[in-house]
Amino acid sequence: MEGINFNQIGVSFKGSGSYVPDQILTNSKISQKVDTSNEWIKSRTGISERRISSLGDNVTEMGYKAALTAIEMANWDIKTIDLIVLATSTPNDLFGSAPSIQAKLGAANAVAFDLTAACSGFLFALISASQFLKGGGGFKRAIVIGADQLSSFVDWNDRGSCILFGDGAGALAIEATNEFDNLIGFDMRTDGERGSFLNLPSKNTKGSIIDNIDFLSGAFSPIQMNGQEVYKFAVREVPIILEKLLKKMNYTSDKVDWLVLHQANQRILDSVGERLKIPGEKILSNLEKYGNTSAATIPLVIDEAIRNNRIKQNDIIATSGFGAGLSWGAALIKWG
Ligand code: COA
Q: In angstroms, what CA-CA distances link 156 with 44, 202, 231?
């Protein structure tokens, strides 16, 4: 953490990276397992296929590969990275997977930790890391990673939820500046009252240590989801938080170059775009190929758009993450 500069007023975006496992699970293959069809899944969600981790593709591996490509784009010496924040709900070590990514990268001067906020995780991590960069504590360069392996926690017999999720990782490289702030504005919300709509709850079975002293062995139940309620929550709250943010920052939706929403369902993306009067060609979508990769969707779709020369320097991105908690958030970004 060298070069402490108390004038750091903002952040700039320097690089992006992503990684997905090789294994492809198509809709028609899912229909061999549960009573569904490619037509049903495609028309209700927009998803055609998703990637599934196999051995060697855990959150540390995926997050590491995404981070490395972001660092390469930023052209940073790895030793200059001060902070690594990993958004994940599926760490391969419950004590945290970020330090293992730090070790694999050789980012010896960074502090690394996990942050959990389900599908809002990447946005919450990006906002948190930005506060470190602006906070005067000497943090100058950060890697923000979203990586998840929900396939390990999906109930593969539940056709109402197993069709949605896939695995992957994305990362952004952000740097403190003392001239401008390209994280133009943000907002974050949670509502634990509605938390039961989407859970990955612990499932403890009682054991005995010695006579009269019980313990609860640790394990998790598969994902439980009320799809209709989550859908209603997303199409209601996401436009509200984005509209409020745009208004607060004196932006109108016609100034937005790209709408980057958590990739949950194409119908949610279309509905939010319609409400904000942002045309379809400005709404980034890759869920057809990857489904909902939880904390990874936002950096994954941003990285793809940067590498395809869609997102360009100084483009304005309105982004929103939403999901379990319930949690949701929005950020207005200028790329670069
Ligand atoms: N294949 C075929 N039929 C299915 C099905 C599947 N995979 N999943 C559900 N169905 C059936 C239901 O059993 C129901 O049948 P019924 O009318 O005979 O009872 C019918 O389809 C309608 O179910 P419903 O739950 O109303 O479907 P839906 O249009 O709401 O679509 C989701 C279901 C899950 C695709 C949709 O609710 C959704 O995307 N919700 C948001 C979930 C989400 O994004 N979660 C993550 C947030 S981070």
A: 18, 18, 21
Told to judge if 262 belongs to the known catalytic residues of this protein, a careful annotator would answer yes
Question: 233 has which bridge partners?
Answer: none
What angle do the packed helices 297-307 and 121-134 form, to 10 degrees?
80
| Catalytically annotated residue among 27, 58, 119, 182 | 119
Each of the 336 residues of the chain gets a pLDDT tens digit; together they read 444 455 678 999 999 999 999 999 999 999 999 999 999 999 999 999 999 999 989 999 999 999 999 999 999 999 999 999 999 999 999 999 999 999 999 999 999 999 999 999 999 999 999 999 998 788 999 999 999 999 999 999 999 999 999 999 999 999 999 999 999 999 999 999 999 999 999 999 999 999 999 999 999 999 999 999 999 999 999 999 999 999 999 999 999 999 999 999 999 999 999 999 999 999 999 999 999 999 999 999 999 999 999 999 999 999 999 999 999 999 999 999
Identify whether residues 145 and 164 lie together within a single domain: yes
Q: pTM score, two decimals?
A: 0.96
Return the DSSP state at 79.
G
Same domain, yes or no, for 160 and 279? Answer: no
Q: Is 162 a catalytic residue?
A: no
- List the catalytic residue out of 27, 92, 262, 265: 262
The CATH number of whichever domain residue 98 belongs to comes to 3.40.47.10
Q: Are residues 47 and 79 in the same domain?
A: yes
Say yes or no: 262 and 151 in one domain: no
How far apart are the CA of 164 and the centre of ligand 1, in A? 10
Q: Is 265 an active-site residue?
A: no
201 belongs to a structural domain: no
Helix and strand numbers (H, E) in the chain are 9, 15
Structure tokens at 3: 């070069």
Query: Which of the listed residues 35, 44, 271, 327 should we mutate to test ligand 1's pocket, taking the one with most ligand atoms within 8 A of CB?
Result: 44
Look at residue 5 and tell me if it is in a domain.
no
Residues lining ligand 1, judged by CB closer than 6 Å? 36, 40-41, 44-45, 119, 159-160, 163-164, 225, 227-228, 230-231, 264-265, 292, 323
Task: Spell out the residues 6+ positions from residue 211 whose beta carbon is closer than 8 angstroms to its own.
Answer: none
Range of the domain at 169: 10-180
* In a shared domain, residues 26 and 155: yes
